[in-house]
Amino acid sequence: MKCSRIFAVALILTMSVSSASAQQGECNIKGNVSTQGERIYHMPGDKYYNETRISASHGERWFCSEEEARAAGWRRSRV
What we know:
The chain is an alpha+beta fold. β1 (29-33) and β2 form a beta hairpin. The protein has helices spanning 2-23, 66-71; strands at 29-33, 39-42, 61-63, 75-76. It is globular, with a radius of gyration of 14 Å. The termini are far apart.
């Protein structure tokens, strides 16, 4: 039980740091929700990266790494 509590605290701290970093502009991977509800991330240089806008009210967000995006259940843009 003690280990799971420590893991939960570490996870919360990691998410807080990532969220704070994203808000400060240090993270440049765009997490976009499609009109079909699909969670897709766009990397700098991807075809629609510049056109993609992030709207937190639609559940969209910034990621600091591809690993972070995939761990959160998002997939990379296929285009």
